[in-house]
Amino acid sequence: MSRRKGKKIHRRGPNVFNKHNRRKAILKKIGLGILALMIIPAGFLSAKLILENDSRPAETSSSTKTTISSNSTSPSTTTTTGNTSVTPGDIGSLRAFYIKVSALTDQGNLDSVLGQAADAGFNAVVFDLKDEKGVLHYKSATQLADKSKAASDNAVALDDLKAINRRIKDKGFIAIPRIYAFRDPLSPFNLPSAKIKLEEYPSYTWLDNSKEKGGKPWLNPYAPDAHRYIIGLAEELADSGFSAVIIDGVQFPNQTSRAFYGDSELTSLSHIEVLKRFVRDLNTAVGDHCKVIQAMPGLSAFGDGTEPFGGNPVTLGADTIAPVLMPSTLGKKLKAGETTLTNPSGSPYDAVKLAAGQISLRLELMEKDGRPDIMPWLQAKDYNADQVNGQIKAVTEALGDKASFILYHPNGAYDFDSIKG
């Protein structure tokens, strides 16, 4: 690739799961058995791109509902949380569940749900502050956030967000906001210096598919302003008292045909190198008092479908990885080593145990000082309490009694009387 032309040719980054990392004989045999899974490429989508310059999607507002059990459809100091003590910089054992951000502003309902969750053994709560649609659910004071015009009509004021965080801590919980990074179909319309452009016409916005097929723009992983936008949000949240933050969408689109990344100091890097730079800089910005948790597809953590990352995403440098191990996301057949599980969604306990155990083995092949902790996403939607408890059991059996996890239902609906975190 020539930096002068500003194009980015697909290059795969280094793979950390190589022979010189296998220092133990038993791990060498395991590694040879699973290495084949890592080279199975995921097929790129074949997409027709459309030129788009001035159209913008309708403004998206956050839901006005305040109940966590909504039926609407759609991941310094020591704080004592539930059954464990968590020091910022060392998140320890976190048993988290996801709620809609709208639930944060109903104090009575929030207190009630946190009480029920605490009785069930949970000690952390996850919510979106920048969602997969690019919408900001709080009023950031950063310059690029203001320019993005991405805040929803119901966005929470920063001072109110700080008060909500203190209230959650007072209830014995760790509050963990999630921020989507480059997967953002909204802010590119107002941050032209931060978006992916079209190769033939750099003044136009690149889409990941044709407009008629729902193609969307993305923030540009090679654009310094895209890095500054997301890192600025994470730093602001860390400075506001949050001791952990989840970063999602740290990737390139699934296909990048005709994408133009510009010509910056970052475009000489490979895909995985620029994502590592982003995670490293974000870690530095939030400081030791805030833990960075990186969400990722579970199959990518397996080594299958890693092209959007340029390599295995578990190696990007986050303190903790949060692979999505919800059985419905693991495909029709899950294969790990000599074991093959058909219909993972029909066997949630087996699917989660197999997946968590396999990712744990992969991490054992990494150097110990660069090995992240694991905090997988588990599935509540479409499963009864026994099936949810089965997933939790599978995680603890695969990762240990102190294993962390995030229980996810898109509407925040949980039967805490029957679920035991």
List the helices and strands and how they pair.
Layout: H1 25-34, E1 79-81, E2 84-86, E3 95-98, H2 107-119, E4 124-130, E5 136-139, H3 143-148, E6 151-157, H4 158-170, E7 174-180, E8 197-198, H5 224-239, E9 244-248, E10 259-260, H6 271-286, E11 291-297, H7 298-302, E12 320-324, E13 333-336, E14 339-342, H8 348-364, E15 373-374, E16 377-379, H9 385-399, E17 405-408
Parallel strand pairs: 3-4, 3-17, 4-7, 5-6, 7-9, 9-11, 11-12, 12-15, 16-17
Antiparallel strand pairs: 1-2, 8-10, 13-14
Annotated CATH homologous superfamily: Glycosidases
Q: Segments where pLDDT lies below 50 for 5+ residues? A: 1-74, 76-89
> Any idea of the CATH class?
Alpha Beta
Main sheet: strands, sense, barrel? 9 strands, parallel
Task: Measure the end-to-end span.
Answer: 50 Å
Radius of gyration: 21 Å
Class from secondary-structure proportions: alpha/beta
User: What is the total domain count?
Assistant: 1
Strand proportion, as a percent range, falls in 15-25%
Number of helices: 9
Estimate the helix proportion, in percent: 25-40%
Instruction: Give helix and strand order, one letter per element, not per position.
Output: HEEEHEEHEHEEHEEHEHEEEHEEHE
Mean pLDDT: 83
Q: Which sequence of strands runs across the widest sheet?
A: 15-12-11-9-7-4-3-17-16
CATH architecture: Alpha-Beta Barrel
**Number of E-type strands:** 17
CATH level-3 fold name: TIM Barrel
The coarse overall form would be globular
Structural write-up:
Helix 8 packs parallel to helix 9. The strands form five sheets. This protein has a nine-stranded parallel sheet with strand order 15-12-11-9-7-4-3-17-16. It is built from nine helices and 17 strands. Strand 3, helix 2 and strand 4 form a beta-alpha-beta unit. With 421 residues, the chain is of the alpha/beta class. The chain has a single domain, classed as TIM Barrel, CATH 3.20.20.80. Helix content is 26%, strand content 17%.
